[in-house]
Amino acid sequence: MKSLLILALMKTISLLPLGLARYLGEFFGVVLSAINAKPLKISKLNLSLCYPDKSQTTVDLLAKKRMQHFAQTFFETPGLWRRSAHWLETKIISVEGDAYLHEALASDRGTILIAPHQGNWEVIGLWVAQQTKMTSLYQPPKIAAFGNWIKRAREKTGSQLVPTSVRGVAALLKALKKGETVGILPDQQPPRTSGAFAPLFGAQALTMTLTHNLLQRSNSQAILCCALREQGGWRMTFMPADKAIYSPDQATSLAAMNAGVEAIATMSLEQYQWEYKRFRTQPEGSPAIYTHGS
Fold first, then answer.
1. Which long-range contacts (CB under 8 A, 24 or more apart) does 169-172 make?
2. Angle 68-73-79 (CA atoms, 0-180°, nearest 5)?
């Protein structure tokens, strides 16, 4: 019953016009700040850690703005899943760096799209899959019916979703060797066995080695991208990753990828996912970043 209610709620939200969805998101973001919700506390911790030179007043203001964008993402995303590819196309305000994307897609090399959790990353997958054959990893949520809805929505524009397993990684590599495109979310904390520590905003972050391994095992290229929230839709940006990301040295490659995440995040700090416990695993002997209550 709980699963059905959640699915019904999300499908109801999906009927909202984009403007109203964002208005409600902005309102609930203000509520999250007013009640000092957990996402706000984590955002403040992360911002203070990553930007130690910023005053507490600045950090507090950024965290409050983040809560509004955090809630707006929640309210606008079901509509993305429900609506057509044509509708999405009408909501793309501009595409910056599209020459980099078109050049990459025109070559016979595979392309890794590195999309940090900035703005609304669902837009990237849905839009790019209309331009080229795209494969991405997918870990279903615990609610099966909800997961099936998301999967159908993400595949409606042509994406192929593969499991977050050895079989899924093999599918990514196969796609790249065929000159196709894969999408990677680079700023989620991986399992210990699938990551290594690398600097991110001046702190140590357990960073996925997947992108480095794919680049080393294929002749692919890496493009950074994001879809920032703008009035009436989204502004998309594509940019080539730093050449150091192709280094055979894993530490050099991971540092370059994280530098790319930083570059994307600083385009609009309030739209980056500061509420995520990105630094919860630290090198042995280092103090914990998050307390029990945060």
1. 169/137, 169/210, 169/214, 171/135, 172/135, 172/137, 172/214
2. 135
Rounded to two decimals, the pTM is 0.94
For 258-271, give the DSSP string: HHHHHHHHTT-GGG
Structure tokens at 267: 């385009």
pLDDT digit string (tens) for the chain, length 294 residues: 677 788 889 999 999 999 999 999 999 999 999 999 999 999 999 999 999 999 999 999 999 999 999 999 999 999 999 999 999 999 999 999 999 999 999 998 999 999 999 999 999 999 999 999 999 998 877 777 778 888 888 888 888 999 889 999 999 999 999 999 999 999 999 999 999 999 999 999 999 999 999 999 998 999 999 999 999 999 999 999 999 999 999 999 999 999 999 999 999 999 999 999 999 999 999 999 998 666
Q: Where along the chain do its domains lie? A: 85-271
- CB-CB contact of 145 with 7 (8 Å): yes
Nearest to 121 by CA among 189, 69, 47, 49: 69
Pairing of strands 195-200, 203-208: antiparallel
Instruction: Report which of 93, 108, 110 is spatially closest to residue 237, judged by C-alpha positions.
Output: 93
